[in-house]
Amino acid sequence: MNARTDNPAEVGLHVFERRGLGKAPFRFVGCYEKRGPISLPDGTQIGSEGQAMGVCDYCGQGIAICCAIRSADGKEFTVGSDCVARTGDEGIVQQFKNSPDVRAMKRAKAAAKDQAVREKIAALLVEHDQLLKSIEVKKWDGSMESQFDYMTRVLPMCGASGRARYLKHIKTLIQSAPQ
Q1: 168: which residues sit within 8 A by CB, 6+ positions away?
Q2: CA pair distance 48, 71, nearest whole angstrom
Q3: C-alpha to C-alpha distance for 154 and 171, rounded to whole angstroms
Q4: What is the per-residue pLDDT for 3?
Q5: Nearest to 1 by CA among 70, 89, 67, 62
Q6: CA trace torsion 73, 76, 81, 84 (10° rounding)
Q7: In this predicted structure, what is the pLDDT of residue 13?
Q8: How much is the pLDDT for 57?
Q9: pLDDT attached to residue 146
Q10: Cα 15 to Cα 17: distance, rounded to the nearest angstrom
């Protein structure tokens, strides 16, 4: 992306300007996700579930996270998030990273992952409740409680990373239990 050039006419030009996408400086306008399947007006659907349906105007790669960029001369084009990161243009990179659209996409992705972990933990606790009730752990005050009671007490107080660790811990307990 930041390829060197020996062409004197291109030295010092922005990579998007070299490609003919407009005149520098460039501004990050917004970001959106474009994944399949997409319904056409005639009712047909194209693309499979989760397939990247956008195309980068800079490199031609299929992209799912589409970044709208506007040049100084008013041309608007779409590039992928990787092409934004590789431009070497710190202004565009910072605008991308600080964009409310990008932050919302990251939050939604993290929330979906956390929800999947919560569901997996709930299923394992229901499926292996007898095993987890038979394993004793020592509480902070020296008394004993079952692993099941401990998990049901502690999990509501955990954040996402804590739940992910406890999921791994529950799987380890289940695998190491005598059959």
Answers
A1: none
A2: 33
A3: 17
A4: 58
A5: 89
A6: -10
A7: 81
A8: 94
A9: 92
A10: 5
At 133, is the pLDDT very low, low, confident or very high (cuts 50, 70, 90)? very high
Q: Is the pLDDT of residue 2 over 70?
A: no
Q: Kindly report the length of the chain.
A: 179
Structure tokens of 19? 């490609």
Structure token pair of residue 37: 């399947």
Spell out where 5-104 has E strands: 27-33, 38-39, 45-46, 54-55, 62-63, 65-70, 76-80
The reported pLDDT for the residue numbered 6 is 57
Spatial CA neighbour of 138 closest among 127, 149, 122 = 149
Helices (H), 58-179: 81-85, 90-97, 100-127, 129-134, 147-154, 160-176
Contacts of 36 (CB under 8 A, 6+ apart): 45, 46, 47, 48, 49, 50, 51, 52, 53
Token output for 60: 């031609």
For residue 34, give both structure tokens: 């474009």
Domain extents for the chain?
15-98, 105-176
SS3 state of residue 94 = helix
